[in-house]
Design goal:
Distance between the termini of chain A: 36 Å
Radius of gyration of chain A: 20 Å
Order of helices and strands of chain A: HHHEHEHEEHE
Number of domains of chain A: 2
Strand content of chain A: 25-35%
Number of strands of chain A: 5
Oligomer: homodimer
Helix content of chain A: 25-40%
CATH class of the largest domain in chain A: Alpha Beta
CATH topology of the largest domain in chain A: Alpha-Beta Plaits
CATH superfamily of the largest domain in chain A: Lrp/AsnC effector binding domain/regulation of amino acid metabolism (RAM) domain
Number of helices of chain A: 6
Largest sheet of chain A: 4 strands, antiparallel
Mean pLDDT of chain A: 93
Shape of chain A: elongated
Chain lengths: 156, 156
DNA sequence: GTTGAAAAGTGAACTCG
DNA sequence: CGAGTTCACTTTTCAAC
């Protein structure tokens, strides 16, 4: 599986992350390629799984998914990532889960419409034998969000 | 400014979040509307800011943005959200920032290519007068991620 | 990269509550 | 009038070469 991206591929990705509905002619213009050539790039990137899909970016506050929380999870005994994935995925409010370094074992990101939905979801997470405790932080206000993308690293 | 979404609007959003490059004919088919009518819906949702844009979903591991961390930030004295936004936004590795409830004041989500990039970025964050301490958790393995969208709430 | 047929986008005139 | 539809016309897609 050689997913070696060349410079043109990276530019194509940048272009599509900025505007997921860009036409192939527009993409081609940015990378000095004809529209069909640009399309072949995009098709290949999709086939390789580099581009997993396209999506609309929605203002969460308008749609009513406004309540968020970050939850640290402390587990007891041995914890298999597979097992954790399965039980966290069962809670629909959990939109992201990962294992982390430090005293906690996992970090969850939850999104819901109401605080009580969060409460219930966190209750479900805690309600498993292998979960020892959780430490939740409700999001008061989101300062900003930006897409992951090719971007300069900080200098310091 | 009444941004009241009706049932059709929500279906349009769901459709575009599942496939950001869906044609207007496809969208129309899902909501029993003609293609031009579907386009007018989408145009209105964009104009209202409900749809903020379209983007490609990229596999981060392929592109090399593999190292992630969650960082709790403890501030001293009065903290203006505007000020916090400005100083966190200055660090390119910070892809998401919010104020939170609990003992910490803010939660940051960082993504970088290498652990030392994270280290440098966290150093930059700490290097402000109003930052008292930080508490970082490096992401060991991402268990799953899923888009925010209209979705069932957990029952419990 | 180029070409051409098929598909999608887009504005205008029209219709219905 | 706001919202949907059909209809012409342009642009884009996409599978040849």
């Amino acid at each position: 599986m050689s997913t070696g991206l060349d410079d043109i591929d990276r530019k194509v990705l940048t272009c599509l992350m900025r505007d997921g509905r860009a036409t192939y002619a527009e993409i081609g213009q940015e990378v000095d390629l004809s529209a069909p050539a640009a399309k072949r790039r995009v098709d290949r990137l999709r086939a390789e799984g580099v581009i997993q899909g396209f999506t609309a970016v929605i203002d969460p506050s308008v749609v009513g998914w406004v309540t968020e929380a970050y939850v640290e999870v402390y587990c007891s005994g041995k914890v298999s990532p597979t097992q954790l994935r399965r039980q966290f995925q069962a809670v629909p409010e959990v939109i992201s889960a990962c294992t982390i370094s430090g005293s906690a074992d996992a970090m969850l990101h939850l999104v819901a419409e109401e605080v009580q939905d969060l409460e219930r979801a966190i209750g479900l997470v805690r309600n498993e034998d292998n979960i020892e405790q959780t430490r939740s932080a409700i999001v008061l206000s989101r300062l900003f969000d930006r897409p992951v993308g090719p971007r300069g690293r900080s200098e310091g």
